[in-house]
Amino acid sequence: MAHSDPQILAGRRILLGVSGGIAAYKTVELARLRVSVGCDVRVVMTPGATQFIGPLTLQAVTGWPVSTDTFDPQQEAAMGHIALARWADLIVIAPASANCIAGLHAGQADTLLHTVCLASTTPLALAPAMNSQMWQHPATQANIQALQQRGVQCWGPAEGVQACGDTGPGRLQEPTELYQHIVAYFTRGSLAGCHLLLTAGPTREPLDAVRYIGNRSSGKMGYAIAKAAAAQGARVTLVSGPTALACPPDITRHQVQTAQQMYDQVMAQVSEADIFVACAAVADYRPETCAEHKIKKGTVPRSLTMVPNPDILAAVAGLPEPPYCLGFAAETDQVLTQAETKRKAKKISLLAANRVSATAGFDADENALTLLSDQGRIHLPQQSKQRLAQQLIHHLAEQYHAYLTIQNS
Ligand code: CTP
Known about the structure:
- The chain is of the alpha/beta class.
- It has 2 domains: 6-187, Rossmann fold, CATH 3.40.50; 195-408, Rossmann fold (3-Layer(aba) Sandwich).
- The chain is 35% helix and 24% strand.
- It has 14 helices and 19 strands.
- The protein has helices at 24-36, 55-62, 73-79, 81-87, 98-106, 112-118, 132-136, 138-149, 175-186, 220-231, 259-269, 312-317, 335-346, 385-408, and strands spanning 13-18, 40-45, 90-96, 124-128, 153-154, 158-161, 167-171, 195-200, 205-206, 212-213, 235-240, 251-255, 275-278, 285-287, 306-308, 324-331, 350-355, 366-373, 376-384.
- Strands 12-11-8-13-16-17-18-19 form an 8-stranded mixed sheet, sandwiched between helices.
- The longest helix is centred in the last third of the chain and has 24 residues, at 385-408.
- The protein starts with 12 loop residues before the first strand and ends with a helix.
- The protein binds cytidine-5'-triphosphate.
- Cytidine-5'-triphosphate binds next to helix 12 and strand 16.
C-alpha cells in the first residue's frame, strides 16, 4: 500500500470512533493503515458497532484496549472519557451511521463515543455510511449540514452498490481514501494538527490592593507567534499576562495576572500540548506578602522581602513526558553565552535569544532573534515582530518534525 508522506502522521494521536453499520469491518483496515505509519490510534465503539465487529479485533490491530462503555470502571481507569476527549489530535468516526450523526447533532451523550465528542474541542471528521435513502433523507441531510456549519468535516459517502442491494450514495469511502483525507488534514500547514501552548506578556506581582511589580513586556512577540502558529494549522492555547492586545481569532486565551497563576494554567493545559513556547516575561520573584488594603504613605516599608516564583519553562521541560519546548532569553549583555547557559540549564530543545535595547525586544514593534539548538545557530535579523514570528514558526516546525522523526525511529 502506497503511503503519501507518512512522516506527517508519525506521533499523531487519532481517536477512531466506530458506530453501528456493516461497513465497520473496513475500519480494521483503516486502523491498520494508520498504525503502520506510526500514529497512535485509540478506538471507541458504540454498542451498535460491536454487533458488526468485535472490539478484540481492533484491540489487536491498534495495541490498545477498545472503549465501548461510559460506565465501565475498568475502561474509565485505563483512560476515562474526558482524558480520551483531550488526548486526541483528531477524531474520525468511520463508519458514521445516520443514528450516530443525529446524536452528534443533538448533542446527545448516550454512548461513550457521543460523550467523548461532546466533551472534546478536538476537530471531528465523519465518514458516513448508510443506506442511500437514509443518507438522502432531509433529516440526515439537515443533521450533516448543521454539523458541517459547526466545523465538522464530512468525508464521503461514496456512491455504488450497497450491502442491502440498493445503488446510490451511502457507501463508506475506502480505507485508502479515508487515509488520504487524514494525511491532507495534517498537511494543511507546517504545524497542522499540532497543539501549541504558549505563554505571553508580562506578569504582575501584587504589593497591595492597587500596586504591583511588573515589567515592560507588551506581549506583542507572543501574540505574533500565536497568530503565525495558527496560520500554519496549529491549535493554539495562549496563556497571557495582562496586555492591551485583543485575542487573535481561532485562539483560545486564558488571561492571568501573576506568575503563579500562569504556572497553574500552563500545568492544567500542558498534558494536551505537543509544543510549549515560553514567551512570557515572568517575574522571577514576588513580594512575600500582599497588603489587603492600599499601603499609606507613612507606613510604606523600607525594604521588601521577595520569594521565588516557579520557573514555568523549567517545570514543563522537566516533566516526565515534556512537549517540545521553545524558550526565550532576553539579555542585555553577553547575549549568546548567557542564552546557551540558560538552554542547557533548563534542558530545552530550542531557545530564541534576543538583545534587549531601546529599539528591539521589550515593548517594541521590532525584534531580532538568534535560535540556539543542538543543531547550531540561526540568526533572524531585526524586523517586525509579525514577520519574525513567521520565520520563527517556520524553523520551529522544521526542528519539531525532525525531533519527532528521531523520537519515533
Ligand atoms: N521563564 C518562565 N518562568 C519563569 C522565568 C522565566 O517560564 N519564572 C521562561 C521565560 O518565558 C523564557 C525563559 O524562561 O522563555 C527565560 O526567561 P528569562 O527571564 O530570560 O530568564 P530567567 O530564567 O528568568 O533568568 P534571568 O532572569 O536570570 O536572566
